[in-house]
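Sample 1 of the test manifest.
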Amino acid sequence: MRLYDQPASGNCLKCRVLLRQLGLPYETVVVDLFRGETRTPDHFARNPDGRVPVLELDDGATIPESGAILLYLAEGTPLLPPDRLARARVHAWMFFEQNQIEATIASARFLAAAGRDRDAPEAFADKVTRGRAALETLERGLADGRPFAAGDAYTVADIALYGYVHCAADAGADPRAHGHVSAWLDRVEGTAGFVNDLAPFPAHVTARPI
Amino acid sequence: MRLYDQPASGNCLKCRVLLRQLGLPYETVVVDLFRGETRTPDHFARNPDGRVPVLELDDGATIPESGAILLYLAEGTPLLPPDRLARARVHAWMFFEQNQIEATIASARFLAAAGRDRDAPEAFADKVTRGRAALETLERGLADGRPFAAGDAYTVADIALYGYVHCAADAGADPRAHGHVSAWLDRVEGTAGFVNDLAPFPAHVTARPI
């Protein structure tokens, strides 16, 4: 398999974490989304949304969207329970993550790193406010005392949530300010084979022209 | 089953469309999210994110998030293919929808209806721009000539996308300006038993105090 990857992307990190934890061999093609390399005809053919990650299977079929990649790879493993209701709880957190965490925290984090929060302060503040509210939701969800997002077992929902929750302080939303979230982050990082190799944004993102 | 529902919500519409198309009996509990009725202790127990839709099963278990509800209900039906790769294509469009369509178009549509676009014009414009880009992605995704989002068969991905694409013009992003999207909307609306009963926003949302 081949992962079209960007080391500084939390969405790509999710896929790398799972591939390593499942022990699946894969090769990496780094695509610099920050230079527009994901918005070419070749890459649009892999993902009409022009983003990474994209997983390419050995037969050439491609799967975009980190959530879809996680569910594909985890099928038949302990990281995705077979029970229909248990699976619904995994799905619910994964959709929540894309809607309320990725769409807010990932975007605000990029804007802050690139110095673009100053160009659009109102849009930036809107994302930070919503990101903070999303962390409050996760705190409520974890308040029942179960160790992981979807219940007693570590699943791909935890990997999906981890991607941008662990670095949400970069977007003005400190996850360690929430007790249950903080303990959950530690549990996720303590699972077997967990490696967070999220890279800093490259210099051409953070070096804002004056 | 019981659906905690809001007639004017595109996310709730998705669940109603599927429940009807599958012929599943259910009762409705209308919750006025616009008056804060989804942010009460009772409702937080159903959904820690304090939103609708929520599906309550006969044993009292609850499933939040429209995407998770659609996947739960469609399991074992023709609207969710059993093949692993085919299912990944369904998932990919559903995650895209929550991340790039719901987070932009649904929010902008509400702000415009409530007259709040004037309070936060920059944040509103950001959502409209992103919503338009998301429609361009859907147009690219449908350009291969297949009739539905995930391929030859109508699936829950189409229902998920329909929820806010069909009314995106309310958010300044006209779906009928895109040929493939427009033809796809017609095909979705032509599926057996399809009923779009999205209600207008209630008067207490649109009657902006002066």
